[in-house]
Every structure is written in C-alpha cells, then in structure tokens.
C-alpha cells in the first residue's frame, strides 16, 4: 500500500507541540518557496544550502542568491563540485532519476542530518519532494534510514501534494524568482 507522505507529515507536525528546531535542506529558491510557506509556522527553521551537484559554479551562486527574494538567510556549506563528481563516478551516464540522482539526494540529505546533529536540531527535512521529477517515496525512505542512523526526527513530506508545485510557480512569478530548467548537475543539463 502506498504511503500518503503528505498526510503523515500533517500528523507529525501536530505531534510536535512547541516549535521544534528544524533543518530544511533547500535545493533552490523555487522549490523552497512553497515549502517555507507551508511549514514555517510550525518550526524554527534553519535553511541549509548544500548542493555540490550544481553546475557550473555561476549557476550555484545564482540559485543561492535567489533566496534573498524569499527573505531567507541561508547556511551555506560551500561549493565543491569535485565532491559530487567523486560521489557519482561511474554513474555519469545514468538516466535522470536513476542511481546517480539517488546517490546525490542521499548524500545531500546525509549532510543535512550531520549538520543537525552538530548543531542540536530536533528535526530534518528537505524541499526535494516538491519536484514532480523527484521520487517522494525514495526521499522519505532515505529520511527514515537517516533518522535511525543519527537519532534525529525526519519530517516526512511530499510537498508537491495539495498543489505545492503549482504554488511554487505562483510564488516565483510574484517575486520574480529565477526558475532553472535543469536539476543541477551537468548530466541533468544534457537531458533538458
């Protein structure tokens, strides 16, 4: 039976009580926009920007700077594209959404959990599930595994539900936020 991660998220949010400290892994301003709107009243959020997959570096800087239009201050863990290339070595030609992407997603989420442990956060989640091109079930399974590994709660989500993706498009139009036309790496750029 397929899990309704949006419903599960709503149940989890109501179980927290007082606003817990949450690390929100942010992939880009467009994806983050509707997520921030949806969960900001429930959590004390730190916005974590860790995306070594983004290519070229000028694109990384552009995506990072677009958060200013959302009024969000990012914790940026820095740009090291070689780190990503080493991670996916041998999987460069994988289809979009395949093993290369899964490694990338899991790696960035793991880094968010490590950051949460080092900085005494209670909850972690990611904006990645808002994309219609990302597998919310896979993302949530990774989150569950990392919750067990690190002992920090993972907030389940499928942010594309309840028109989340459409809402992100509206917010971007209203705030004139740059919307990229590829996921991030040079390999996803080739499939656009």
Walk me through the structure:
With 192 residues, the chain is α/β, with parallel strands linked by helices. The chain has one domain (5-13, 21-189): HUPs (Rossmann fold, 3-Layer(aba) Sandwich), CATH 3.40.50.620. The protein contains 8 helices and 5 strands; from the N terminus they run H-E-H-E-H-E-H-H-E-H-E-H-H. The protein has a 5-stranded parallel β-sheet with strand order 3-2-1-4-5. Helix 2 links the parallel strand 1 and strand 2 (44-49). Helix 2 (29-39) packs across helix 7 (164-175) and helix 5 (99-118) runs parallel beside helix 6 (136-150). The model has no long low-confidence stretch (mean pLDDT 96).
Quick summary of this structure?
The chain is of the alpha/beta class and 192 residues long. It has 8 helices and 5 strands.
Please tag this protein with its features:
alpha/beta, 5-stranded parallel β-sheet, 5 strands, Rossmann fold, 47% helix, 192 residues
**Which structural class best describes the helix and strand composition?**
alpha/beta
- Neighbour order of strands in the largest sheet: 3-2-1-4-5
CATH topology: Rossmann fold
Query: How many structural domains does the protein architecture include?
Result: 1
Number of helices: 8
